[in-house]
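SAMPLE LOG
Freezer: B-3
Tube label: C17
Construct: single chain, 342 aa
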Amino acid sequence: MKENVTLNMAGRRIVWLDVLKGICMLCTMIGHFPFFPDNVATCYAPFFLSAFLFASGYTFHLENSFISFLYKKVRTILLPWFWMGMLTIVSRLILSFNVHGGGISSQLMDFFLQIRGKGDEGWFFVCLFGSEIVFYLIVLLARSTNRIALVSFIVSLISVAFSLLTNDMRLPWHIQMWGSSCFFLSMGYLIHQHEKESTIKIMNEKYLPLSICLYIICFAFDRYCIGGNAITFYYYGNSILMYYLLSIISVWMIILFAKSVKPCKWLVFVGKNTLLYYGLHGKVGSAFTFIVRKTIGDNLSDITSIVVGIIGLLFIVLTLMPVVYIINAKFGFLLGKKVRRN
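STRUCTURE (predicted):
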């Protein structure tokens, strides 16, 4: 997940946005444990990726030129994607806890293509990169709020139509999801542009109970009345209308929750460094899964899986903390940060 600089106009970090990204990153990491129950993961499936895109849209702004914007995205998204991906592939040659099909050439091909389900661990990097390029053009050309919202929605419908007409064809760099991404980017961007207006007062924390109730109702209706797999950013479910409705309500709910909770330092730390946690947690998570299988086994009850998943989550967060700190302090150029010269 891209680490946007979550600053307000005064140059101060927007803490609730770091909390939001931290929560979503925890959902991402715990969901990658193969033993974690699917019926639990479906509860947060509608928002944990969409809210990341909302956060990216919230901090989105046009650069002086498209070239400078493109250069910034290459530096801050593609560069980290590349070195963390290469690190993952090299680490597999040294020590691997899972079976990976194909040799080094096959893994490299899968890495550069980033087709869903084929060695695409870093797919969100390239999906976000392409989506932000498209969204830049939308904002640049549409200009007004209404047109940005309308064009973003239309572009998202193109993604939906492509998925339905091609039976969910999977393209390199997850191009098929760029349109859907723009919808959530526009949500964050437009709310940030107009959050002080009366029409955006629903972003107040006092509406959290209402958002939770609406989410439970919509989630239950989708699961038990409409049926099908859980709606998430990249799966539209059996109702396109419910996809948009549930996604919007769930993102609204988790935003209000992030604004309401008292921020703890470790969660904010994860939120500030989602890019590194996303790119580096795989090997640490695999090591923990290996330990679980050797000590406890594979047949875990749902309660045990949840408890072990939470322990594993803490293991990943704490293990990567010193690594993340050192990279930020000494090797900021790996994240696209400009190095200050004395």
